[in-house]
Amino acid sequence: MVDRRALGEPGNVVIEDESHLEALQHWADEAKVNGTHCWVQLNHPGKQSPKGLNRENVAPSAIPFRKDMQTFFETPRELKEEEIWDIVKRFGKAAEVVKKAGFSGVQIHGAHGYLVSQFLSSKHNQRTDEWGGNPEKRRKFVIEVYQAIRKEVGGSFPVGIKLNSADFQRGGFTEEESLETIKTLTELGIDLIEISGGTYESPAMVGSKANQSTLEREAYFMEFAVKVRKAVNVPLVLTGGFKTYQGMADALTSGDVDMVGLARLLAIEPDAANKLLAGKNPDHIIQKVKTGFGPIDRMSVMETVWYREQLERIGDGKGPKPKLSAFWVFMKYVFRFVFKRKGVWKERAS
């Protein structure tokens, strides 16, 4: 995160300045031991942060969540223009620190309903100033963020973006707008595009909008990737839905994408990459995380919380626990909020 006042989940790493440069350098060094690239994804959650985590949540416009989610997410305050410019600068500063720490590259999180995604969407961005009102003005924020980062890291340091193919909400970000955004960023010199889709309210990134044929093919957003490949000449990553070696191999051999994105699988099976490189299927098949309570299970935030718990276990040297109870994780998450707000819970320093 680029602002400690704007966390997306408890325990987020925040990069605002060089306060933790030594720890970041150690992280980068360890990550690259085997010649691996390690890019840092920079994000600001905007409105998409649970109640109680931040003093307040901000967004392009003060648009509430749908009614059944308002218990968990508050209506955000509309950002003032000077605050927007401050956030833009924060992205640039964070990227500068990332480069200095020795990481291989940086990625803007412009997908899944977070702040960059909110600015791009006419559903969440209903401003009438220079930051909204039509697709060109709604693109201004992501363009300024990219240019602020590029100014700080230079022309040769890799900069990418994770972008929605669409946000799958009525009146929201469309495929046509996404393609125009990709064309604009490519012209500006972006080095990599990662395609995904959806938001907390419409979690297409976990398969909620996929039909049977898409589920069988595994790649949720392949049709859009094909359109992007025809429109621009920039490395493409496709994320969402991949489960088997063959599904990933088919996507790559098609020539429409250059890389597949995996996240949830690696959080419960860290050795999966070695199996895939050997032409074998992973041991685990990703299933939707369910607590058994409909209102909670309909929010993709539960997926984030459960997999975050797996990553924390790995960080503590315990290893992942694929059969971990989603209900237990949810209750721990709730108590974490309660005690943190009372000043009892202390997050472990990262």
Descriptive terms for the model:
350 residues, alpha/beta, TIM Barrel, six-stranded parallel β-sheet, two-stranded parallel sheet, 14 helices
Task: Give an overview of the whole structure.
The protein folds into 2 domains: 21-261, Aldolase class I (TIM Barrel, Alpha-Beta Barrel); 285-350, no CATH class. The protein is an alpha/beta fold. Helices cover 40% and strands 9% of the residues. The chain is globular and about 50 Å long. Helix 2 (81-101) runs parallel beside helix 5 and helix 6 (175-188) packs across helix 8. The chain is built from 14 helices and 8 strands.
Strand content: 5-15%
Helical segment count: 14
Predict the CATH topology of the largest domain: TIM Barrel
Per CATH, the superfamily of the largest domain is Aldolase class I
Q: Write down the Rg.
A: 19 Å
- Spans of 5+ residues with little confidence (pLDDT < 50)? 205-215, 344-350
Element-level helix/strand string: HEEEHEHHHEHEHHEHEHHHHH
